[in-house]
Each structure stands twice: as C-alpha cells, then as structure tokens.
Amino acid sequence: MAYHNTIQNYSNVYNYYMTTYAPKPCTPYDSHKKSELRNVYNSIVKLNKEAPIYILDTSKDSCSFAVGMKENARELRNVIASLGDLNENELLNKKTAYSSNENIASASYIGTLSEGVNASYVEIEVNSLATTQMNTGNYLPATEVVNLPPATYSFDISIDDLNYEFQFNIKPTDTNGDVQSRLTRLINNANVGISAQMVKNDEGNTALKLESNATGLKNHRKNIFQVSDEHTSKTAGTVAYFGLDENIVPASNANFLINGEERTSPSNQLTIGRMYQVTLNGVSSEEGETALIGLKTDVESLTENIGTLVRGYNSFLHSAVEYSEQQPKSNRLIHELGSITRYYAHGLTSAGLNLNLDGTLEMDSDTVQKTAMSSDAKEAFSSVMDFTHSLVRKSNQISLDPMNYVNNIVVAYKNPGKNFATPYITSAYSGMMFNGYC
C-alpha cells in the first residue's frame, strides 16, 4: 500500500507541474524506438561525465522554468517532426489537407509522404454533431441558508467505469450559493472529465450545471456520467437537494455521410482511411450541402509547413523571453537562438523568411511560393532546411539538460577526459519535481 501511495504521489506532482507550468499534449512523435531511447541514454551519460559540479537553484521559479523549457523544447521538436519527418528527404514535405467548407468540417493530413500520392477526395455531409451530457440542478435562492443540517456530506460521480467520491462540509451559516460555488470548485479541480458552473435564471436563483468533457455514447451506454449519494461514505442528501441527477440532457452521437454512406461517431473528431483527421464543426444548413476534403498542391503544402515552422519557432522564443526577468540566465538561450537565426539569415530572407528586430521570424508567403516554383527550389530552401535541423539539435540539447539555463553556481570543473559517468545532473532535475513529496 505504501509503494502504491508513493507512485501515486509521483504521478500527482508530475501532473501538477505539467498542467500548471507547461500544458503540452502528447503527440505521436513522443513515442520512440529502442535505438532512439538508447541514444538519449548515451547522450545523458556523456553529458553527465563532463558536466561541472554546481550548486542547484531549487527555488519554485527555477523548478517551473526548468520543467517549462524542457516541455517547450519538446513541443518545438514535435512541431518540426509533424512537418514530414526529421530526416533530410522528408523534412518540410508533409502534405496538407484542405476543406472546401470549414463551417461543416476541417481536416489535417495524417498519412505518410508516399501515401499522399494516391490520396482520394472525401465528401462529408453532417446531419448532427456529437453532444455532451448536461445535468442542470435545482434553481435555489442563492442568499438563503441551505436547508440541510450541518454535517460532512459526500456524493459519487461515476464516469468511464470509475467512481469518484466528493466530500465537503456544510456549516450552519452556509447559503445555497456558498455551497454551489464550493461544489463548482471541487468538481473542476478534480479534473475527472466533468466541468461545473453556476447558472442563474430570470428570477435570480442559481443552480449547479454539470457537463461532460466527452461527447457521444459508446458501447450502447445510456449516459456518460451518473451522480448519486445512495452508497456514499458520508451524509447523503445533497444530490436530491441540489438536483445534481435531474434535468438531464443526454449525450448524442454525430450523424454524417461520407461519400454518401451514413456513419455515426461518439466524437466530432474522426479518422478517415488513415489519411485524414477530420473535425466536424457544424451541421449542413441544407440537404446536400457538403465539405470536400482533399490535399493541397505541393507549393501550398510547403508554404503552410514553413508557416507552421515559423509559428513554432516564434512561440518557443516568446516562452524563453517570458522567463528572462525571473531567470536572467535564460538570456543565454535567447542569445543562442538568435545566433542560429542570424547565421542563416541571408538564406532565410532569400527564401521568404525575414528576421525581425525582436528575433522573431516573419514569412512572406508570396516570396515562399515563388521560390517553391523556381527551377532551383531545392537549393533556395537549403538554408531553411539547415536552419530547421539546427533547431532540432538545439531542442534536443535543451531537453537533455534544461538545468544548463538555470541560475546555478559552478563550484568546480572536472578534469577533462579522466572522469566517470555520474547520474546526478539528471537526478537533480527529476528530484526537483518531487521535492517535498518523497
């Protein structure tokens, strides 16, 4: 039991840092082969072997900076990887999907470079979207004292075959609005897949509204979540009083036609033929109104890929600048990024990427397209390719050792070439996240 609680604490604190400081979603590019993980391990061993000995700055600001920059570097690498691949032949060559009617559906291409040659068009007509489940409780006068005896109450929410118990106290002076507000915070902070909010009617009374984050009904279920206090551990009665299990608007599945064939889906996001990732945005306004999904031309795809690269670079640079006041050593990272950009500035400008005074890049779409259609396009974009590879190397370096940009005090340098590999640099970074929880 103690071992299980320790692992749970590790998970909780890591999730806290990830959601508080650097909320970055996982992508397919976060999975790796054994050889790639072996290369990461070897890089860490080499890095630790030659790293100097220094006193760590373990303040909360340094912790959030280290975690944030590591995750921002990961995101930049994933942005670049999503534009084709990290190898020289496929970099920035990803095909780009388009939709003829974004109001009905939008799309992105998820196939490989070779599969894009034979990708076919897809026609989509949307009859209805997948919806969430909503429970709207009883409307009660917000300023009146709760008509329940003071006690410790609890209720259970069942969602995705998991049960979550919520406990809270009601004091003699608590009003309906006080308790509704408390329950709103309690449910939202639990992050169990349900959002809560207080709503008000025309009479000024308030109710608690629960809504699922997920849409649709899977496996012939009748609901996404259920609220009950029939078998809860503390005092029951709040579910009926606040109406948490009443006025239910059930979830529903999306109904649509793909190339004339009717389909349903519990989600508004779907994959078609392992080629397109489609998001249903709205219902066809009239019968027969469709959205045509297909691939853009190579020039359009390249232009969009370069635009995505520019946005990813600028976003990473801005995140580093935001830390510059609290972490002065982060200016070193800003300087390194600037050195990379200035080194390739002439070639980038020729290809249509202009360097601004603040270090960010700005794309001239017309110049990029003209360059892409020229006879020497491959040579003209060579600087862009080299610049992109340099960003990948820099992002990998930051991911391996974000502590290199924290305000640490160097105590001693190791004797070059006569050192043993030590794990302490990486352990120090990991330990910062769990500090106070172990």
Question: What are the salient characteristics of this protein?
Answer:
single chain; about 450 residues; alpha+beta; four-stranded antiparallel sheet; 12 helices; about 40% helix; disordered N terminus
Describe the structure.
The protein has 438 residues and is an alpha+beta fold. 38% of the residues lie in helices and 21% in strands. The protein is built from 12 helices and 19 strands. Strands 2-16-4-12-13 form a 5-stranded antiparallel sheet, with no helix packed on it. The longest helix has 25 residues, at 298-322. The two termini are 15 Å apart. The relative contact order is 0.18.
Oligomer state of the chains in this structure: single chain
Low-confidence stretches: 1-8, 18-23
Biggest pleated-sheet summary: 5 strands, antiparallel
Question: What's the rounded overall pLDDT mean?
Answer: 83
Inertia-based shape: globular
Overall strand count: 19
Number of helices: 12
Structural classification:
alpha+beta
Q: In percent, how much strand structure appears in the residues? A: 15-25%
| Straight-line N-to-C gap | 15 Å
Radius of gyration: 27 Å
What is the share of helical residues?
A: 25-40%
Strand order of the largest sheet: 2-16-4-12-13
